[in-house]
Request: fold
Amino acid sequence: MNSRLVRKVYIYFVIIITLALVTVGVTGYWRSSNELEKQYEGLLTQIVDNVLHETDLFLKSYERATLSILISPVVKEALDLPFHATSGFYSSELAMKGVFQPVLINNPEISMTYIVGYNGFQATDFNAHIVPFNYKGFDEYVEQMKEDDTINGKLTIKDSGFLDGHLTLIRKLADRTSSTTFKGLMGLELKIGELNTLWKGIKLGNSGYFFIVNDRGKILYHPDSNRVGKQLDGMHFNTVEAKTNQVFELPGEPGRVFFSRKSDYSGWTLVASMSISEQRQPISDLRQTILIVGIITLFLATFLAYRFGQSIVRPVRLLENGMRQTAKGLWTRVPLTGSLDEMDQLIISYNTMVSRLEELVERVYETELRNQDNLMKRQQAEFQSLQLQINPHFLYNTLEIIICYAVIQKSSEIKDIVRSLSYMLRYSIRTDLEEITVANELKHILYFMSIMKYRNQREFEIDVRISTDYLLDSMVRLTLQPLVENVFKHAFPYGIEDTHTIIIDAWKEEADFYVVVQDNGCGIDAESLQQLNTRLLNSRQEKLVDSQPTFEGSIGLLNVHNRIQMVFGQQYGLSVQSEQGVGTKVTIHMPSSSAKKVIAV
Reply:
């Protein structure tokens, strides 16, 4: 039997390994070759997109640089007023010193900047002294730019500048009152060598390269400097224009693939090229590696499968017999083989597991019962601790009032205060988990307000808008009074005014019951509000007794919030909305009475 098992293990292992190697090798080679081709195509696309993007950003930066000149009052006034020799000269000097210089200093690659008005105004400035400067040729160049209909209020790029080796960045200057009426031209002469520096860092493998042509086929950039400024072959240019955003081949360029994309901003076309052989070299290397590794792995795996089959049969049988006995409820230990290898370690682990399972099964029932009892006691203790965490200042202040009234005069006020305080104490010290009705909570608020009347020395009525249909709905004991007390302490810090209001309302949405305490007090600043709501969200991980409040009174909110969650669950509790100077709205979220009955059933 053992011999047959060894043979089966050996045969199965060989079949699985061979099938896995063939499947993984063929599938891996096919997928890898396809992915490599896609990656190279994506690489070309990404490089072209990145270069175009960087070039457009580079050119657009000069559009922003011209804004300081465009908004200059001196330039606008010079273009609007009739031109006179004296005033024109004065305005030119101001434009040179006060307007052009910051642009030229911040952009040393700009050789020349100028403004020419249709009223005869003209101002120029240079980053370096241009010798000689052909003023007559410049005037003729400007006249050509004025007649060029492609130039408008946006920055236009002319790949052949007035100065040799420069690009012209030019735009028409609009009238103050109309965007279609132009008053003059503004131009920059940019060294094309700056763009060459931007492009030279792009690499496309060992033999890859890219070049840029304008909309007329003129080569603006090429790694071969001898081709810069020359015209691209007509057939090649037509192919580049027709195959935009595609991978293609060019006539007369065997063994290479190209990809082109045209910039919507500059109108230039960037063409990237890579060698096909270089592109497919990793695929060829991958195929050869997979073949060699597959053959070596097959021989090695076959040998190991045989040895492995021989070594596992007997220990496996021993474990099998032991497990069969254990499955019947007989905790059976398996004897060691004596080889002291991993199989013996496995048998030792199995025997240890059996011993521990035998002990754990006996303990599990007792532990489960103890855990349930401890959990109930812990929740009960935590709930009582939270409910008894009452701010003592209210009691101290109330007792001070009683003493003052007792000393000064004998009156019915003392009886009202003591009776209200007595009710509140009896209501507060109950620590059971039972829920109370909305009506009882409102009655507790009534006694609280009776005491507050004497504390504030004035009447103050709370606007209770709760429908009578909700008065017998259940809620957690001592939740409304801490919220109302919090309003008096923090929402009205400078005393009660006639304009101050406190609204208590309630409504239901399907299985949810909401009670709201809203005031029109000073509100909470945004940072403190965010911290408070964060603490409410994470309150179960905090120790309320030792925690530091976000602001004075936040512990009372957290106390109420945690007691609600203990009774109804983690999905319920408090949420706070507030706007500084407008007021605060605290919402109590609980399940409705009908939802509780459904859960109980």
Summary: The CA atoms of residues 203 and 209 lie 7 Å apart.
